[in-house]
Structures are given as structure tokens and as C-alpha cells.
Amino acid sequence: MKSYQRILSGVRPTGHIHLGNYLGAIRNWAQMSLETKEQLFCIVDQHALTTVVDSENLKENTRTIAAAYIACGIDPKKSAIFAQSHVSAHTELSWYLSCFAPLGWLNRMTQFKDKAGKNKENANLGLYAYPVLMAADILIYKATHVPVGEDQKQHVELARDLAGSFNSYYKKEIFPLPEPIISKETARIMSLRDGTKKMSKSDVSDYSRIHLLDDADTITLKIRKAKTDSDPIPSSKEGLQNRPEAENLMGIYSALSAENIDALCSEYSGQPFSSFKNALTEILIESLRPIREKMQHLLQHPDELDKVLYDGADIANLLAEKHIKEIREVLGMIPRR
Ligand code: AMP
Ligand code: TRP
Predict the structure, then answer these.
(1) Structure confidence at residue 2 (pLDDT)
(2) Per-residue pLDDT tens for 274-293?
């Protein structure tokens, strides 16, 4: 059995948590938790501010992500579940790391280019510095492994590079070099409306994604409307090449059923997508029902969710404070009283 020392990951509380977040990230965290000594799962509310300043909904969105973590199988008794803003050392370390981050490295970040779009001059500094704060989230705990979807690989690699350059500048192994852990099969769940775009919280169309809080009728409708092509299901996986929507739907079924795509193709070979969609709808409804019900139950008790967040922050702060003291000392600051 593989054993991870300390894992850390996070989700932005910026909107509806979806199937891509579940299959690409949170489901794997719950599995890895069984093989890990220490685990910290953060709700990155400060990162959320780089794209949406939604003060009215931030508390609720943060609790929704906490509820999703628990409903997807993360046990708050074994893992620290907390809000990023409850541990001040993240932003402090972010500043120190930013003094080590060459602009050339940040200029290569594809997420910034995507999010800033053509109008870079108007993009905010927070969006540009986003990967440095993410590096701080990871390094403040000296995390060794970071389970994420494919889109975050470049950011984790930046954290690794920053850790390496900090260590070598101070000639001390302060930070372990964190490794991204990406589950190959579910690294990129694609939009239901366009198989070349990833499923994302920020897509304007609700029909592009399945939300973890969607009920059975909504899931049925979204899968019925999901884009496919007019060809029948091929007899093997190779036949899905250049058919991104078809490949995505079969990938989702496979991820939920643990049946491989070749087996699925031979089972449905020659049939139109409509019959496969019925099976997909059914497995989605059955797989997501317990998650939705548990989330709804948890969200009815916001005080209990807040208690989970406070307890998680206590654990996270203990570790973060110990590390930030060591870092300040290495940087040459006069120790605090
Ligand atoms: P975000 O929604 O950007 O806060 O992402 C939270 C986590 O979910 C990160 O680890 C992402 O890499 C992962 N993730 C987000 N969207 C997808 C997707 N469409 N497929 C796979 N993983 C995803
Ligand atoms: N950037 C990640 C995303 O968009 C969220 C995130 C912030 C994160 N800090 C992190 C993920 C630290 C892993 C580790 O999804």
C-alpha cells in the first residue's frame, strides 16, 4: 500500500461544486486519506476573491464546500477541514515566497492567461499572484503530496520550484518538495456542452456541469441535453478518438462504475447514445444521491459545520505557527515575544 506523509488540497468556494471536483479531486482525497498519516483540506476563500467578490454568498459557499468534503467521505475526525482565511500564516508565507518568485515563472502560468484573457492590464494582482498563495497553502504545512485535477499540475510544480529555490538559497531543507497526485482516468472531466472544455464552476451554462446538489430530475435533464455526436457507440475505446463528448460521457460512467471503457464499448457497441444516456443517468443519480442527502443534512446545521471548520483551523494553526516561526528565523527576523 502506498503511504503518503502529509497531504493538503483545496477547493475555491466560488460557485456550485460539481462532478469534476468530485471525480477529479475530492473522491481521491477520501481514498488517499486511508493511506496518509496527516491530511489537511482547505476551503480557499482568499483565492476566491481573485475572481469573484461575492461577500454575500462567501460564508454559505464556504460551508457548502465543507459539507461536500464530509459528504464525499472525508472524516473531520481524521482530517483537518478548515477555511484558508482562518490561518493567517498562509498569507504571511505567500509574501515571503513572492520575494522568491521570478516574474518569468509566473508569466508561464496558463491559468492566469486563461482567466485574465485579452485584457491583462485590467487583471488584478491577486489573480497574478494566485499560484504563490497556493504554494504557501502547501508549503506552510510542509505537505509532501497534493492531490489535484490536471489543471492544477502546473501550480503544484511552481510550489515545488519555489520550495527548491528557497531551500537552496538558505542552504537548509526547510520545505519538502511537494508532489502533485493526479488520478489519470478522472484528471479532466469535460463540459457536458463542449467536450473540449473542462467542466468548470465558472461556465455560464448550468447545463455544462452536474452539481453535487442536483436532484434526480435535474441530472436526468442535463444528461438528456448533454451534447453527443450522431455516430453509434463504437466497439472499442479507439473508436472514441476525436469524439470528445462521447469519450467524456463514457469516462464518467467508467469512473462511477469502475467498469473500464473497453468493456463499456463492447456492452453498448452499435447502440445510439440515447440508450447509454439512460444508464449514465441512473448511475449518476444513484452515486450522487447519498452525497446530496448528506450535504443537505449538513447544510441544515451550519453551527455544526462551523465547529468542524474551527476545530480544523485549530489543528492547522498549530502546525502553521510552528513552521512560520522557523521560516521567520531563517529569514533573519527578530523573534516575536
Ligand atoms: P476548483 O473548482 O478550480 O476550485 O478546483 C478544485 C479541485 O477540483 C482542483 O483539484 C481541480 O483540479 C479539480 N477540478 C476542477 N475541475 C475539474 C474537472 N473538470 N476535472 C477534473 N478535476 C477538476
Ligand atoms: N488552485 C486550486 C484550484 O483552482 C485551489 C487551491 C488553492 C489548491 N490552494 C491549493 C489546491 C493548495 C491544492 C493545494 O482548484
Answers:
(1) 62
(2) 889 999 999 999 999 999 99
Checking if the pLDDT of 296 tops 90, the result is: yes
Pocket of ligand 1 contains residue 155 by CB under 6 Å: no
Separation of 131 CA from ligand 1 center, angstroms? 15
Expressed in angstroms and rounded, the spacing between residue 34 Cα and the centre of ligand 1 is 21
Mean of all residue pLDDT scores within the chain: 94
- Cβ(250)–Cβ(260) below 8 Å: no
Mutate to test the pocket of ligand 1, among 12, 152, 201 (most ligand atoms within 8 A of CB): 152
Q: Predicted confidence band at 4 (pLDDT cuts at 50, 70, 90)?
A: confident
- The CATH number that domain 206-297 falls under is 1.10.240.10
CATH number for the 4-181+301-331 domain, one of 3.40.718.10, 3.40.50.150, 3.40.50.620, 3.30.70.660?
A: 3.40.50.620
Q: Which residue has the cell 475526525?
A: 77
Q: Which of 148, 151, 155 to mutate to test the pocket of ligand 1 (most atoms within 8 A of CB)?
A: 151
